[in-house]
Amino acid sequence: MGPDCVVDLVGNPLSERVRTNLAAAGNAPGYTGPHVYFSIGGGSEQAQPRPLPEIVADWLDGETEVVAAWQTFTDEPGAQEYAGFLDRLQHTVSYSNGAFRQAVADDLRQAAIRARLRKKYFRLALGASETCEDRITWTWNGMQTARLEADVKEGAYDERLDELVQHGRVVFRLKALEAIAHEKVRSLSFVDELEVHLAYQVKLRERLELRHIAPDMRFFDVAYVTEDDLSAAETQVRNEEAAGFADFLATGWIPWDKVVRRIAPDAYEETRDRLIDAMGEEFESRLRQRLADLDLTDDADAKLQLGAVITKEIACEIKGELTSRVLGDRGLAL
User: Fold this and answer.
1) What's the pLDDT tens digit per position in 242-276?
2) Structural domain tally of the chain?
3) Which listed residue (55, 104, 111, 132) is catalytic?
C-alpha cells in the first residue's frame, strides 16, 4: 500500500512492542507506506461500576450536602457513564495536582445545582472510558470549555469583561493549536490522533496560559511531538493571535457576542443595523472595485470568493468598533 492509503487500527489492542516497531518504520525518513491510525488501549469495563454518589464523595470529602444532592441524579441519562469517567479521572497523572483536584470538585458542586451543565457533562462522558487514560484527560478538557460557555451564557462574566477577554484568548489559542496538531497528524505515518492533539495542549499549557487544560498526560511519547514542534507552535500561535484575535473576538466567538448583546443592547442593535446597511451599496461598491483591480469583473467564481472576503471584512470593521466601544466604556482595551 502506498502513502495515499489509510490503515485504521483505532480500537485494536496493540502491544507496546508492536507500536514501537511500527512507529520506527512508519515515522522514519523516506517511508512511503500507508498512514496508520491507532489508539492507546487501557479502557476497562467494570462488571459492577461503583455508584455515582460514592465516586462523587471521593472528590468531595466531607461535603455531605453536595454528595446527597448527587444521590438524586443517578437515574439521569448518562449518569453511569459519568460515574465511570469520574472514577477513572482519579487514576490520571493529573490527579496528583492539587489545583486539578480542586477544579474537579468545583465542577461537581456546580453541576449539582445546574441541571443544564450536568446534562452537558453526562453527554460528554459518553464513550470517554472506552480507551486510554488520556482520553479521560481529553474529555475533561472539553468539559472545561463547556463549563466556560455555560458560565458566560448565565451571565457570570457580564461584569468581568477583562477575564472574559482572557478566556477568549485561550479559546483562540486552542483553536490555533488544533489546526497545528492536525497538520502534525498528517505528517506522521503511524499516529494516535488524540495523543498528538493532547500533547500540544498539555505541553504548551504554561507557555500559552491555557488555564483550564489538565496539567499532564500519560502517553506523550507516542504523540511524536518534539520540543522543536512545541516551540514552533508557540511562536505560530502568538503570531496568529497578534494578527487575528481582535477579529475573532468581534465576529468569531459566540460567547462574547452574547455578553455584548446583553450588557450593551442599544449599541448592539445599532451595530446590527449598520451591518445590514453596509451589505447593500457599501458591499457592492467594494466588490466592484476589487473585481476591477484584479481584472475579474465578469468572473462569477471570483465574485463569490471575493464577496465572502468582503463580507467578513465589513463585519470585522463594524463589530470591531462595537467591541472597542464596549471595552473602552469600562476602561479596557485589547
Assistant:
1) 999 999 999 999 999 999 999 999 999 999 999 99
2) 3
3) 132
